[in-house]
Design a protein that fits this description.
The chain has 312 residues and is of the alpha/beta class. It has a single domain (2-305), classed as 3-Layer(aba) Sandwich (Rossmann fold), CATH 3.40.50.720. 38% of the residues lie in helices and 15% in strands. The chain contains nine helices and ten strands. It has helices spanning 15-26, 80-100, 138-151, 173-183, 201-214, 230-240, 261-272, 280-286, 294-311, and strands spanning 6-10, 30-35, 45-47, 66-69, 105-111, 157-162, 164-166, 195-200, 220-222, 226-229. It is globular, with a radius of gyration of 19 Å. The N and C termini lie far apart (44 Å).
C-alpha cells in the first residue's frame, strides 16, 4: 500500500526534487526530503551535505523503500572537481547508503546532457544515442558517470533523463529566455522550427509518482512530456510578457564572452539544432499519462519571474 511506502527525496529544495516531494506527500506517501541550500522547514526534512560519505549515517528517518536522487549541482561556473564531487561523489554515497539499508528502487534524476554533443538535434533515443562520459562539459560528464554507478550498484533502478525543464522555479530555461527578450539579446541561429523536448514543472510530480508505482525499469528513459518547436516556445514567452519576440538573427554576441556562455549556448542550440528526445520507452514503461499543457508552464514561469522581481 502506498500509504505505508517510505520515500527519500534528495535535492528537495530544488525545482525538480521539490516537485517530486510535494506530489508524493499529497498522494499519501511518507516522504522525507534532504536539502542543502536552505534550512529544513519541518521534521520531514534534513539538511545534509551528500559529498560527505558519513553524512547519511546521521539520518534518523528511514529505512526507505524508494529513493529519488535529485540532488545535483548545475552551476556551469564552478570548478569541474566541485561538479563531480556532488554529481558523482554524492550519488555514490547515496547509492552505498541505499544498498546498505535495503532500498528496493533507486530513481536517478539524470539529464539528456549525458549524450554530450549529440544532445543537439532530432530523434535522440536511448538506444541509438550513445552516452558520452569523456567528452563534454563537466556537468554532462559527471551525470554520465553517475548513471554508470547506478547501473552497477546492484539496486533495482530507473534512470530519468531530463531535457530542458520549464515552469515555476526552473533555473535555466525561463530566466535565460525572459532576460534575453527583456534586454534585446534574444536571437535565432536557425529557423527555430526544430523540435525541443521539455519537461514542464507541473508534470514532474505526477510522472515521478507513476514511475514509483510502476517499479524499476532497469534502464534509462528520456523523461519529457512535450515536444514543441523552439519558435513556438519562445513566442509563448513573448506573448506572456506582452511584448514582441525580437527578430535578431545569429551573431557572435558579447554575452558569450562575458560570463553568459551557458545562456548563449541554450539560445543557439535550441534555435539552430533543436533537442528532440523521443519518449517511446517512457510511454511503454508508464502507459498513458495525462499531461498539463506546456503553455501553462510558460505562464507560470513568467508570473513567478515577475513576482520575484517585484519582491527583490
Amino acid at each position: 500500500m502506498k500509504e505505508s511506502m517510505k520515500v527519500l527525496v534528495t535535492g528537495a529544495d530544488g525545482c525538480v526534487g521539490g516537485a517530486i516531494a510535494e506530489q508524493l506527500r499529497s498522494s499519501g506517501y511518507e516522504v522525507h526530503g534532504l536539502v542543502y541550500g536552505r534550512d529544513p522547514i519541518d521534521a520531514q526534512e534534513s539538511r545534509l551535505d551528500l559529498r560527505d560519505p558519513a553524512a547519511l549515517s546521521t539520518l534518523q528517518a528511514g529505512p526507505f523503500d524508494v529513493v529519488f536522487h535529485a540532488a545535483a549541482n548545475v552551476d556551469p561556473t564552478i570548478p569541474a572537481k566541485a561538479m563531480f564531487d556532488i554529481n558523482l561523489g554524492g550519488t555514490i554515497n547515496v547509492l552505498r547508503w541505499a544498498k546498505q539499508h535495503g532500498c528496493s528502487h533507486f530513481v536517478q534524476i539524470s539529464s539528456v546532457s549525458v549524450y554530450g554533443n549529440k544532445a543537439r538535434g532530432s530523434n535522440r533515443t536511448e538506444a541509438s544515442t550513445a552516452r558520452s562520459r569523456r567528452v563534454g562539459l563537466p556537468y554532462s560528464r559527471s551525470k554520465a558517470a553517475a548513471e554508470i554507478e547506478v547501473e552497477q550498484s546492484g539496486i533495482p533502478y530507473t534512470i530519468l533523463r531530463l531535457p530542458m525543464v520549464i515552469g515555476k522555479g526552473d533555473a535555466l530555461a525561463s530566466p535565460t529566455v525572459i532576460d534575453a527578450i527583456r534586454d534585446g539579446s534574444f536571437f535565432m541561429a536557425g529557423s527555430g522550427n526544430k523540435l525541443c523536448s521539455v519537461m514542464t514543472v507541473p508534470n514532474i510530480g505526477p510522472f515521478a509518482e507513476h514511475v514509483l508505482r510502476r517499479g524499476p525499469s532497469g534502464c534509462a528513459l528520456n523523461f519529457a512530456d512535450h515536444h514543441v518547436s523552439w519558435q513556438e516556445i519562445a513566442q509563448k514567452y513573448a506573448d506572456e510578457m506582452a511584448t514582441e519576440l525580437p527578430s535578431k538573427r545569429f551573431s557572435w554576441p558579447k554575452g558569450f564572452l562575458s560570463g553568459r556562455a551557458t545562456q548563449w549556448l541554450l539560445l543557439w542550440s535550441c534555435s539552430k539544432s533543436g533537442g528532440h528526445f523521443p519518449t517511446d520507452e517512457l510511454e511503454f514503461h508508464l502507459g498513458p499519462m495525462r499531461t498539463v499543457r506546456w503553455q501553462r508552464a510558460v505562464a507560470d514561469a513568467v508570473s513567478n519571474y515577475r513576482n520575484s522581481a517585484s519582491s527583490s
